[in-house]
Design brief:
heterodimer, A: 8-stranded mixed beta sheet, 4-stranded antiparallel beta sheet, B: mainly alpha
Amino acid sequence: MSQDHFQEDQEPDQYTKQTIENGFSRRSFLSRAAGGAAAAGLFGLSGLPAMAKDAAEAKGPELATSGDGGATLSFLPKPKPIRDREISETLTFDVVVVGAGASGVPAALSAAENGAKVAVVQKAPFALSQGNTGAGIDLAASEKAGVEALVARLIADSNHRCNPKLVRQWAYHSGEAVKWVIDRAKQGGSPVVDQGSPAQRAILKVNGYSLGYVTSFFGPKPYTTGDGMRHLAKTAEKAGVRFFFRMPAVQLVQNRAGEIQGVIARGPDGKYTKFLATKGVILATGDYQNNKAMSDYFIPDVKHFGRKQLDKTGDGFALAYWAGGVIEPIGHTKMLHDFDAGPASMCDMPFLAVDRKGRRFVNETVEMSLLNNYLRDAENAGHYSQIFDSNYMTQAAAWPGKLVPPEGLKNYMPEDPGPKKGVFESQVNTHVAGTIEELARKIEADPATLAATVKRYNELVASGKDSDFGKPADRLIPVLQAPFYGIHRRVRVSAICSGMLVDENHQALNAEGKPIKGLYLIGNLGGGFYGGVDYPLTVFGLSLGRCYTFGYLTGRHVAKL
Amino acid sequence: MKPMTIPKAVAALLVLLMAAGLGAAEAAPKTKATAKATAGTARTSKHADKGITCAQCHGRAAKKELVPMQQCLSCHGDTKELAARTAKVKPTNPHENRHFGTEADCNRCHHEHAVSENLCLPCHKFHFKVP
C-alpha cells in the first residue's frame, strides 16, 4: 500500500465518491455557501427547536452542515481555539492515539513495536472495551476462494453499501492481527484463548469453499474485552507506550496547510496539555450513541432504545469533522442485541416471541440482531420475550443453536438464589412459572394478552401451519406443558458502526477525496466497513476483529512513516 | 479566606445560576438569606448553607467554569478511601464500578444546584438514594 494512494488523475472508488457526495463535511458546505446557496441552512427538523435559532445565527462554518447545505448541525459546534497561553504543558511523541479501546490499544502497541514513541490519551480512567469475541480468518487454513466468498457474504450483509477494499483488508490481515492481540494480551496477564474455527460453525464453508478462523475470546463474563484491553495495555506500557487517563481530547492541532500536528487534551484538574505528534494522530474514540442530538440526526431508528455504553459522545467525529473529514451519509449501521438476559446460544432459536405487551409480532426465524427493527417504538423500546414450555429440550433439539437445560437456565434467573457464573448478575432476566399468567407478570407483559397469544399460537401449532406469520412447520412447537419459561430480552445499542471516510491506510480523507496529513481514524470512528441497516452476526466477533486488525495495521503504518 | 463583599457575592451567585443551566431570567437573590429561603428546590446550594462561597468551588476568574472533580476531592478526600467506606453498600458499591473504577466524576450523580440522580439506572436495578 502506498502512503498516498489517491492521485489526481485517478477516480476515487464508488464508495468514496458516494460518501463525498452525500456525507457531511466542511468543504461541501463552504463551497455551496460560497455559491450563494443556503448559507444559513434552513431546515425542517422537528424536535430540535434549538437548531432553528442556531441556523438563523449560523455564521459561516461555526456550525457543521449537511452535504447538501440544507441542515445545520448544532451538535457539532466548532470549538473556540485554545490559545497557547492556556496550555500548561506540551509533550512531543511520534504517534498520539486518542482512545484506549479495542482499536486504540492495539494501535498504540503496534506503533511502539515498530519503533515509535507513543502516547495514548483516554477520557476514561482506564482502557475500556465491550464484548468477548474477536474474529479473524486463518489464511493458512482457508482456500482463497473461501476468503473471497466470505468477503462477498459480508458485502451482501452490508447491503452492498460498504467499501469492499476495507472488507478485503480485514479478510487478509485479521488472522495475523487477532493472533497478535491474543499473544500480547497473554503477555499482559490475560486469560484470553483462541477458540479457533469451532466458534464459527456456520461459516466453515461458504459457497462450498473452506475457511478456518482465529477467534479470540476474552471471557467468560464478567471478564470482557474491557479487561482484555487493560491487560493488553500492560504489555503496551512495557513496550514504552505512555497512557494519559482521564484526559478527554478537546481539539486537534492543525496548521494552515491543514496538516494535523497533535491534539490538545484536558486533564482532571481542568488544565490543557498539548500532545504533539510528529508522525500522526490516530483517533480511536468510538461511536456517538450517548450523544442524543447526533444519534437522533444520523440514526433516528435508535431513538427509543437503551444504550449499553456510557460517554460515547462522538468526540472524534467532531475533531475529525473540523479538520476537514467527511461523516458517512445518514442511515448509519446499528448493532443491537442482548446476550445477557438468557443464554446467548438460544438467542436465535425460533421459540414463540412476544412484544412487551405479550403479542406475537414476527416470524421468529428472524435473528435477534434484526429484531430491533420491529421494536423501535417508545412502548416496546427493544423489549421482547422468548416463550417455551417444559418440553423444549426434546422438541427444539433439532433446531440450530444450543439449548441450555433447565438446571443451566437457573444461572440466568434473577429469582433463583443460587450463585451465578459467567453472567452479568444485574442483566439476567429469565423466568419460570406454573401458569402463563404468572409468567406474564414475571416478564412484565400483560397476562390476558399473553394468554390469548399462547392460545392462538397453540392452535397454529396444532394445525401444522403458521397462517399468521408463515414460520416453517418444523419450527412450531406448542406452549402447553408447565412449567413455562420466558426469557425477557431487551435489545439495546451496543454500538453504532458507521463513521468517517478513510482510505486503506485508515487516513482521513477530506471532501476532495485527499488524505488529511497526520490524521488516522480507526475502530467505530472509521467508516466504510459496514453500510447495512444492522451489524451482521455472520462472523461472530467481526466488530472486535475489525477493531484489532485496523489498529494493528494503522499503528504499524504510522510508525513507519 | 476573606469574606466576599455583597456585590461580588451577588455577581458570583448569578454566574453560578447560569452555570447550572437555570438561566438568568429569575430575579437574582439579593442576599444569602434570600438564597436560603429557596432551600428544598433545585436553586439551592448545600455548600452555601454551610458558609462555603461560590469562589471556593468555581474560582475567582471572571468567567466561571464548571467545577472539576479535583475540586470536590480537595475537601472530600481521596476516591479510594470513599470507595472503601461504601464497600458494603448493597446491592453494589456505588463508588467502585466497571465503568469508571473509583474515578466516576462526582458530578455525574451528586448535583449541587439540581436534584441528584442515580447514573446506574435504568441499565442496572441499583436503587440508591443519592444525597
